[in-house]
Design brief:
Chain A is of the alpha/beta class and about 270 residues long. Chain A has twelve helices and eight strands. Chain B is globular and about 70 Å long. Chain B folds into two domains: about 55 residues, no CATH class; about 220 residues, 2-enoyl-CoA Hydratase, Chain A, domain 1, CATH 3.90.226. Classes of the chains: A alpha/beta (about 270), B alpha/beta (about 280).
Chain lengths: ~270, ~280
């Protein structure tokens, strides 16, 4: 329980190098994970990890962003910032999940889509847009867990889910507080001030209706008592998955969920 | 040696500063591409293209509707939808009031139903003069209602993008509009209806990473900046200067993300052709 932390303190915890990552969650919560690589179009992007696995004995597709655990891996994964191939691989795996009727579980921890020259040449914008569209019409259950940072369209590209769960100290925002401060005030040093204004904490997002549940963390952050963190995530995941497995029309429900966001403007206008 | 370069650099910088401070004479506009002055009248008579080099100046949403749809054919949709201040962001209300006064618009998007050469269609336009055409919750809502209107009435949809991306002051709710508009287009797509996306200068950020990239046909105006990350951010990331023409409409066409670069004077006839090609009665 971390009730009294400031938003900026949570940003620091969300980025803690020892914070459990996608590989940790996969080995703690899943069995028989088979990693699948490549987008079948042009390449493989290590910053997105995905494949088939068993979750409590049930086949699922698990996909998430990967920051890497040492410098070599960090560089290979561009610190968890995917290229278009990463998003296109994710889409390929989601389509496969649809074909084999497997639920999709995503883990999000990314500074955003990679802002590189080659990423632009290969259609970063198109890759994200396509994922948003296709994810919205999957007919299998989709659950997203924001475990660390969820920044920008690069996070949302794995986040169009029936349930969006968020760890207590994770953050989810339109971009990093540093980027936000740069755009708005041309001063990246004002990132702490930005963090407070951005409404990026789990509690803020719960209130705004952007997420569905906050997963509590051990005092001081998820990295200080990993076993407890895994148990908490597992409990929430399995509960939501069994709820969703009993529901019909999951695509329509997902559509309505996102359709309502930011619809607090006068809607009853008859054209 | 280095002295020569330093001098040259200083001279270039001084010239750049001079250019930036340059104010064209009254009743004239300076073209940012060729640097030449033209009279307001000459530019406005030329569909806001530079009469000397063909540079496309940005145009407002109503002007765009005016040159796209048949004269007198259009009816505006959802005119009353306007931004709120969902995060109570400091200074945002004042910014909105200022933008409204400057542009006469209630939001950065205007939608209408009308005809092009007699064929009915729904057109949505982003206006870059209203807070850089950024996507607020209201813009997302208006575009989604517009997509749903076209779907319900089984009409082709044309969206003109011009946007710096997300509306920072609406934070995460702005981000969610990417999912909302893309999902609405997913439904529209399933009904077998035509969506033409027209990219104009600039189309970047969350707009590029959602509805703007999802057209059955994607057109772009010449020279338009089109991309996800802004050139400055990319330059900082890679630490190199970007190649000439990077992220311009022609570059996007070469890389497979745009069907055709269409100059403004030919846009209406191109849209008309596409509507004709997609009329029912085929297979």
């Amino acid at each position: 329980m971390n009730g009294s932390l400031t938003a900026a303190e949570r940003v620091a915890i969300a980025r803690h190098p020892q914070r459990p990552n996608i590989s940790d969650y996969i080995s703690a919560l899943f069995t028989d994970f088979f990693e699948q690589r490549g987008d079948r179009l042009s390449g493989e992007d290590a910053s997105v990890l995905g494949g088939a696995a068993l979750y409590h004995g049930r086949p699922v597709t698990v996909i998430g962003t990967r920051k890497g655990k040492d410098l070599e891996e960090n560089l290979l994964c561009r610190f968890g910032m995917p290229n278009p191939e990463g998003y296109r691989k994710a889409l390929r795996l989601m389509r496969q999940a649809e074909k084999f009727r497997r639920p999709v579980i995503t883990f999000i921890d990314t500074g955003g889509a990679y802002p590189g020259l080659e990423a632009e040449e290969r259609g970063q914008g198109e890759a994200i847009a396509r994922n948003l569209l296709e994810m919205s019409r999957l007919t299998v259950p989709v659950i997203a867990v924001i475990t660390g940072e969820g920044n920008s369209g690069g996070a949302l590209a794995l986040g169009v889910a029936n349930r969006v769960l968020m760890l207590e100290n994770a953050v989810y925002a339109i971009l990093s507080p540093e980027g936000f401060a740069t755009i708005l005030w041309k001063d990246a040093k004002r990132h702490e001030e930005a963090s407070e204004l951005m409404k990026l904490t789990a509690a803020d997002l719960m209130e705004l209706g952007v997420i569905d549940e906050i997963i509590l963390e051990p005092g001081g952050g998820a990295h200080l008592a990993r076993a407890i963190t895994f148990r908490q995530v597992d409990e929430a995941l399995s509960r939501h998955l069994s709820q969703l497995s009993r529901e019909k029309n999951l695509a329509a429900a997902r559509y309505q969920k996102f359709r309502r966001m930011g619809a607090a403007v006068p809607q009853k206008e008859n054209p | 040696m280095s002295g020569i370069f330093a001098k040259r650099r200083a001279r270039l910088l001084a010239m750049k500063a001079l250019r930036e401070r340059y104010v064209p004479p009254e009743n004239a506009v300076a073209c940012p591409r060729c640097g030449q002055d033209s009279s307001h009248q000459a530019v406005s008579r030329n569909l806001y293209l530079c009469p000397r080099c063909g540079h496309h100046f940005p145009v407002g949403a109503y002007y765009r509707l005016g040159i796209t749809l048949d004269h007198g054919s259009f009816r505006e949709l959802y005119p009353k939808i306007a931004a709120q201040d969902p995060l109570s962001f400091p200074g945002y209300r004042e910014k909105l009031a200022e933008a409204r006064q400057k542009t006469g618009l209630s939001e950065a998007a205007v939608s209408a139903v009308g005809t092009i050469d007699g064929r009915r269609c729904v057109v949505g336009v982003l206006d870059s003069q209203f807070l850089l055409g950024s996507m607020s919750a209201a813009v997302g809502e208006k575009l989604t209602l517009t997509i749903e209107y076209a779907e319900k009435n089984r009409l082709p949809l044309i969206l003109f993008s011009a946007s710096g991306g997300a509306r920072m002051q609406e934070g995460i709710l702005s981000l969610m509009q990417m999912a909302k508009t893309s999902a609405a287009l997913g439904r529209f797509d399933k009904r077998g209806l035509l969506y033409i996306s027209v990219l104009t200068d600039p189309t970047t950020g969350g707009v590029t990473a959602s509805f703007a990239s999802l057209g059955d046909v994607i057109l772009a105006e010449p020279g338009a900046l089109i991309g996800f990350a802004g050139p400055r951010v990319i330059q900082q990331t890679i630490g190199e200067t970007l190649p000439e023409g990077f992220q311009r409409a022609e570059f996007q066409m070469e890389h497979g993300f745009v069907d055709a670069v269409v100059p403004r004077p030919r846009m209406r006839e191109t849209l008309s052709q596409l509507l004709r090609l997609h009329e029912k009665g085929g297979a």
